[in-house]
UniProtKB/TrEMBL annotation:
Keywords: Chromosome, DNA damage, DNA repair, DNA-binding, Endonuclease, Exonuclease, Hydrolase, Manganese, Meiosis, Metal-binding, Nuclease, Nucleus. It comes from Blyttiomyces helicus. Residues 1-22 are annotated as: Disordered. Pfam families: Metallophos (PF00149), Mre11_DNA_bind (PF04152). This is Mre11 DNA-binding presumed domain-containing protein. The lineage of its organism: Eukaryota, Fungi, Fungi incertae sedis, Chytridiomycota, Chytridiomycota incertae sedis. Its cofactor is Mn(2+).
Amino acid sequence: MVDSQLPLGSPAPQDPKPPADPDTFTILIATDNHIGYLEKDPVRKDDSFKAFEEILTIARERDVDFILLGGDLFHENKPSRKCLYQTMAMLRAHCLGDRPCRMEFMSDQSENFPDRFATVNYQDPNFNVGMPIFSIHGNHDDPSGDGALCSLDILSVAGLINYFGRQSEVDDISIKPILLRKGTSRLALYGLGNVRDERLNRTFQKKRVKMFRPREGAEEWFNLLIFSTCPEKGQYPEAKAVTLSLRTAHGPTNYVPENFLDDFLQLVLWGHEHECRIDPAENSAQGFYVTQPGSSVATSLCEGEAVEKHVGILEIKGTDFQLEKIRLKTVRPFIMDEVVLKDETDLRPTDTAMVDAFLKDKVQSLIDTALREWRELNPDVPEEAEPKPLIRLKVEYSGGFTTFNPQRFGQAFVAAVANPKDILHFYRRRVPQKPSEKKQAIDTGNIDAFIPEKLENFRVEDLVTEYLSTQNLDILPENELGNAVREFVEKDENDAIKEFVEKSLFQTREVLASRQLPTEEKDDEAIREEVLNEKRKLAEKFARLPAENVAEKRRRAKTA
């Protein structure tokens, strides 16, 4: 059997299932799988693969009609060959086969899948797809580089997934739904892949996001939107906190408020955020519900990642739905806690040995708790196969206490935890400043002055933009420079900065050569004014481009 050759094990035997309701869509929903995360780490290398295979196994066992993924399937923009191979092997083993697809595709496939083949994979005569997957892209696996392609394009052209939700213009977004029918139920599936939050916010504010509805019987369709972006912070105060746990550098437009979305929607599936808040929460103003499945693997040691991880089984009949959440069992246990040293009456700031012993006891207690919870969830797994847990202890050390080397501290737990080098996180509570006390400018001579404590949660383009906010670049537009640096760092586009500089200089020289500038004493000032005008035009033009087209259009401008 093919299943026996899977790199990470085979699907579990399936129990006999009752006949499926011919009028009910059954959909497995998941987001942010980040396949390939830490694939070279000796301990955590298989975590993302195991979690994704568990998701596929659940889908088979529950006999779902299809799987719906909300972006960031891969962690790296350019997955390694090993990562891509293992992912394709799992998709082939779980999704291909003779199992019949019980739903009709009603919309124009050339509009939903504007690629070379423009065909949903389960209707392609060249493939035998038993369980379709529909997926949008996130900010990790978004299109970039030559051809503006992404890893999902590779899976799509191989017939393994259906990649949709891609936009060609970010300042004029048109979302045409995938229309599916099963019996008497009709589903309009809207998808929007990740667009930079500031741009998407601006496009919504200009009312240039259009969502098309079916021509006939619009009220009979169940309308589901899936997209990958930042929600509004604190949208549901009664729910658990940390709605933006992985994105700390948010400005006033770095999110999409839910009131921007159309009120004809019944359900919004929110990707990109890693905290699991899968229970549907109602937006009473707009009349729809929101579900946030969260990630299937922890990519950061923060509060949002420590929440139990789930996927959902979404059932849709007519215009009604219900969502069943399923706990993922193969996810590495992760427990996070916090101590305030000055509140521990038995500790003295001068006795570092006592502080060290106290923290080690605390960490050991967290390890015991993590393993106990794992055993309750996986009673049939032998003890030798138990995974080492992730442990993060935040230590507030104000009141005269000092820090010590976290890596040296972690050596005592090398055999017990998966992250011995960063178990401890020392910090001091910030004292709120009055507005009059805040600095008006950044000391660019000391770049550490504006790097936040959690640097891993800070976007590189935000760092560049903040640094350049106090600089005066004469030729290069700051927003495009920040994006070029981001592509260089995050997307492994080694020529991104070089091509950006060459393109900017080339265009500026062309403009100056085409203008008849005055040959007076003030000619230098006139030239400077022309250069600044061209810089502003380039910045405005860049702001209107979709992120996935930036690198491609930069190359075209260079070779023009």
